[in-house]
Amino acid sequence: MPKLSPEKPVAVIRKLRRLGFDGPYGGGRHVFMRHPDSEVKIPIAVHKGRDIPMGTLASILKQAGVSVKDWLDL
Predict the structure, then answer these.
(1) Distance CA 31, CA 72 (A)
(2) Structurally, how many domains does the chain consist of?
(3) Which domain holds residue 25?
(4) Which of 1, 5, 15, 46 is 20 to 30 Å from 73 by CA-CA measure?
(5) Residues 70, 18: contact at Cβ < 8 Å?
(6) What's the mean per-residue pLDDT of the chain?
């Protein structure tokens, strides 16, 4: 079974765009990505020099409705 690893916020935003999400849109401490069809709104923590941890990334994938295998294939 493929495993997640921490990723840079820029890479997460790029992959979400490939999945059809719009953004990122500003908003306080996090930026948001929104899917135009389902109106799913996903917050992404963008902190200088820090990767998105595996647990947070798993939560983002769950909200987006994407499997780990599909995410790693992007």
Answers:
(1) 22
(2) 1
(3) 9-73
(4) 46
(5) no
(6) 92
pLDDT tens per residue across span 22-51: 999 997 788 999 999 988 999 999 888 999
Query: Could you tell me which residues come within 8 angstroms of residue 49 by beta carbon, excluding any fewer than 6 positions away?
Result: none
Tokens of 32: 């948001």
Of 72, 69, 11, 64, the C-alpha closest to 40 is 64
DSSP lists the bridge partners of residue 26 as none
Q: Is residue 2 part of a domain?
A: no
- Residue 3 in any domain: the answer is no
In a domain? residue 60 = yes
| Count of positions (residues) in the chain | 74
Contact between residue 6 and residue 51 where contact means Cβ atoms under 8 Å apart = yes
Inter-residue contact 24 to 42 (CB < 8 Å): no
Predicted TM-score (pTM) of this structure: 0.89
Q: Does residue 58 surpass a pLDDT of 80?
A: yes
